[in-house]
Every structure is written in structure tokens, then in C-alpha cells.
Amino acid sequence: MRHGKKVNHLGRKTAHRHALLSNMASSLILNKRITTTVAKAKALRKYVEPLLTKAKDDTTHSRRTVFSYLQNKESVKTLFGEVASKIADRPGGYTRIIKMGDVRLGDNAEMCLIELVDYNTLYTKDGAAKKAKTRRSRKGKKSEGAEDAVEAPAAVAEAPKAKAKAKEETEKKTKKAPAKPKKAKE
After folding, report:
1. Which residues, in sequence order, are CB contacts of 10 under 8 Å at separation 6+?
2. If we measure between CA atoms, which residue out of 116, 98, 100, 97 comes closest to residue 31?
3. Buried b (16+ CB within 10 A) or exposed e, 60-95
4. What residue spans define the domains of the chain?
5. Which segments of 61-180 are extended strands (E)?
6. What fold is seen in the domain 14-119?
7. pLDDT 10s digits, 20-29
8. Alpha helices in 14-106 (DSSP H)
9. Which residues does 33 contact at the CB level (< 8 Å), separation at least 6?
10. pTM for this structure?
11. What is the pLDDT of residues 52-96, one digit of tens each?
């Protein structure tokens, strides 16, 4: 029995599985999305997410650690360059698996798309404000509330002034200059 064994072996020996995941991770980093089976995508997610977390800290040690997994200079360079800057403020969950609903013709395996979350602009709203980070601890809650209380009256006091000013500007634009009387012909 295989109680408590969580690793999906993907029908491969250890060396073959590591090579497969390394190549898929490199392809994912370079191309930002790849099409594969659901089982491989789930295994790849467990493999690549710790590497993406490690890429946030750009040190020689973390570069060497990631290179030992990927074995590809171009993908390491891309990961620590453009990908790390995009995922810098994300606290995890860097990949998304989208099931495509179709199956592979040869073996009827369910296919899916795995992609880096920050590179798909379909799911992000344009101009949406970033959510403030929330903490689960109550450690600094009193000081944050005090700052908000100080800022709130100032913002409330400024709001009517801004509205009045905007209203005056629109009235000026809509007003026309008085028409000059035409000279009557004699």
C-alpha cells in the first residue's frame, strides 16, 4: 500500500522524472505558459513554485540553487530578471492551472494549460488599485487605526472644496461670452 506517499511518480524512474520536471519548468519560465496533462501540471506546480520563491532573493547562493534544479542558463537569467520583478509582491501562488476540457487523442489524458499568473492580463482589471497587504496578527492594529483617524478628517474636509472647485470650472467652460449687438444698417 502507498499510505502517505504524496509524490506522483508520473510512471517514470527518479532521474527521468527530475529531467522531465526540469525541462518543463524551464519551458514554463521562458514561454510563460505551456500545455500539458493535468497530472504533469500538478507535479510541475510543486516543483516550480519553490524556485519562483527563491528567485525573489537575488543572491549567488539562490541562483546556484535554482540552476541545480533547472540546468538551463537562459531560464535562470529570465527567472531572476523579468519574472522575479513581476512576482516580487505576490506572497505565493505564482502558477495557474486551467483545464481545457479536451483529452489527448492517443491515451485519453486530460489536457490543461499551466501559466504564470502575473503574465496573463485577461484576469487582471485595468487600473485596479492594488489591495493593501493584510496581516493576521493584531500586533500593529492600534497604530494603524490612529493614523487612519488622523487622515480621515483631513480628507473629508478637502472633498467638498475639490467638488466646489470642479463645479466652478465646469460653469466657466459652459458659460458663453455675451453676444455683441449687431450694428443696424442705416
Report:
1. 17, 20, 39, 40, 43
2. 116
3. eebbeebbebbebeebbebbbeebbeebeeeeeebb
4. 14-119
5. 95-103, 110-116
6. 50s Ribosomal Protein L17; Chain: A, (3.90.1030)
7. 999 999 999 9
8. 14-31, 38-55, 60-70, 73-78, 84-86
9. 113, 114, 115, 116, 119, 120
10. 0.67
11. 999 999 999 999 999 999 999 999 999 999 999 999 999 999 999
Q: State how far the Cα of 12 lies from the Cα of 45, in Å rounded to an integer.
A: 18
DSSP string, 135-149: -SS-TTHHHHHHHHH
Q: Are 116 and 32 in contact (CB under 8 A)?
A: yes
User: How many CB atoms lie under 10 A from the CB of residue 32?
Assistant: 16
Q: How far apart are CA 142 and CA 78, in angstroms?
A: 42
Whose grid coordinates read 496573463?
120
- Let me know: does 69 contact 51? Beta carbons within 8 Å: yes
Q: Are 44 and 36 in contact (CB under 8 A)?
A: yes
